[in-house]
Design a protein that fits this description.
alpha/beta; inorganic pyrophosphatase (n-terminal core); Diaminopimelate Epimerase, Chain A, domain 1; 5-stranded parallel beta sheet; 19 helices; 13 strands; binds manganese (II) ion; nucleic acid binding; exonuclease activity
Length: 471
């Protein structure tokens, strides 16, 4: 991937902006449909701030990727233009059938793989159509920003929200950003909108006392410290640090000391590069007041993501569009979510020896022991915490509603470079057992009937050994 692809992407963004501009006339009724995670919420907030500035009548719906019935229902709402963010590429058939066929106009700004559609009432932006990676080079919020900034320079400061979304989708690799994200960060720094520094990347480092920040740390989950208040206290005591100080106030030298103490406490876990890079690295901070609430982009991303995961995405959205009155609610949701994830990680650590080995991947069927909605997240956290060996992809399954099992699969960028494409493999295997699913090369999900779990494992073995290892 190089400059030519990034240029193509920028041209694609211009085309969508050209399609959108005349529809910001104040007469076109617009419906925005976006995802409930940090990237989806940030993308929706970027577009909403733009639509608001143009005084356009619009409403926003934050949900999981819509089913065909959901899209049929949207059509019945009687809006003029439907803008899908962070979704839509996988739903083009339904969009065509229920929206375009009824003279509705549609824009899809997405970074998931999908089909392609040519239609006079349709416009889209997707890195996959420009030779870029949708899992690392740009997320929905970066793509939405790329469109919006074409409309007016005053939207430029929303670039920090674009980075918040990319961080939420784990597009920041240990080596930094790539593709469009990399150009966004460089511009944000050049324009003085974002500052880069180095430090402990713990979530809530600027929000809660150090002892609490360590106790509830799940990214990374630190064996011997996470979930263990007494041992967090004694670690800080050894260093002579106050329990109540904020990690973000310590200064680089003390932060380094604390990092070293954590590394030695974590022992074998801390030998792993993955763990070290999750704990220590670049911290991005918004340098302007456009972002209401905490200024560290990683924390901001964690906050709005937690809102979505606690089923209150509208609170994260309200904060991201600049309503500071929701800040306390949002922080409360993050705090609750940290406890939920901490408990789930404690459970997973107990189960690490229970993963089964299949041909080409490792898997765990959790039954109803863990919330299916956060299983994918705890797999990601376990990988980032170097708790799971990753010479193969890892798959988690947990019971969901209505007799279904939710499947979450994760790989690493190294495995993807070797040819793994989980989105393709999961989609194939799920379809073979009467379920459905898909996603990115590095992370994918599916829903399958509960009585087909064993068949699914066999189908996934087949799908991974054929096809999915081809580049
Ligand atoms: Mn996304």
């Amino acid at each position: 991937m190089g400059r030519a692809e990034i240029k193509r992407f920028r041209r694609g963004a211009e085309e969508v902006a050209v399609f959108l501009k005349p529809r910001l006339d104040g007469k076109t009724r617009i419906k925005v449909i976006s995802h409930t995670d940090a990237d989806g919420i940030a993308a929706a907030a970027i577009l909403a701030r733009c639509l608001y500035a143009y005084n356009v009548p619009f409403s926003v719906k934050l949900s999981r990727p819509p089913s065909e019935e959901d899209i049929a229902q949207l059509a019945a709402e009687g809006q003029d233009l439907y803008i899908f963010l962070d979704q839509g590429s996988g739903q083009l058939d339904a969009i065509n059938k229920h929206l375009l066929a009824r003279q509705k106009e549609v824009i899809v700004i997405d970074h998931h793989p999908g089909q392609f559609l040519e239609h006079p009432k349709f416009s889209c932006l997707n890195p996959h159509l420009c030779g870029l990676s949708g899992s690392t080079d740009v997320s929905a919020s970066g793509a939405t920003f790329s469109v919006v900034e074409q409309l007016d320079l005053r939207f430029r400061s929303l670039i920090s929200l674009a980075l918040v979304g990319a961080i939420g989708d784990r597009q920041e690799l240990s080596s930094g950003f790539t593709g469009v994200n990399d150009t966004l960060l460089k511009r944000a720094v050049d324009l003085g909108l974002v500052r880069e520094s180095e430090g402990l990347k713990l979530v809530r480092r600027s929000l809660v006392p150090a002892v609490e920040c360590l106790r509830t740390s799940t990214r990374p989950y630190i064996l011997g410290l996470s979930g263990n208040l007494a041992s967090c206290r004694s670690l800080l005591d050894t260093l002579g640090l106050s329990h109540s100080s904020l990690i973000s106030d310590l200064g680089l030298e003390l932060e380094r000391k604390l990092a070293d103490a954590i590394f030695s406490k974590a022992g074998a876990q801390a030998v792993k590069e993955e763990f070290r890079r999750t704990l220590w690295g670049t911290i991005l901070t918004a340098a302007t007041d456009d972002l209401v609430g905490p200024k560290e982009l990683g924390e901001y991303s964690a906050i709005i993501d937690a809102c979505g995961n606690m089923k209150r995405p509208e609170i994260g959205f309200a904060l991201a569009v600049g309503d500071g009155s929701y800040q306390m609610d949002a922080l409360g949701l993050l705090s609750n979510y940290q406890e939920v994830v901490l408990r789930a990680m404690g459970w997973l650590v107990e189960k690490l020896a229970s993963f089964k080995i299949a041909a080409g991947f490792r898997y765990l069927y959790a039954g109803d022991a863990v919330d299916a909605a956060i299983l994918g997240e705890i797999l990601s956290l376990a990988i980032e915490s170097a708790l799971i060996p990753m010479e193969q992809p890892v798959v988690g399954m947990a019971d969901a509603a209505d007799g279904y099992v939710k499947v979450s699969a994760r790989a690493t960028s190294r495995l993807v470079a070797e040819g793994v494409n989980l989105g393709r493999a999961i989609s194939k295997a799920a379809a073979a057992v009467g379920g459905y699913g898909g996603g990115h090369d590095v992370s994918a999900a599916a829903r399958i009937p509960r009585n087909r779990v064993e068949d699914f494992v066999v189908e996934l073995e087949k799908a991974i050994s054929s096809g999915s290892y081809e580049l």
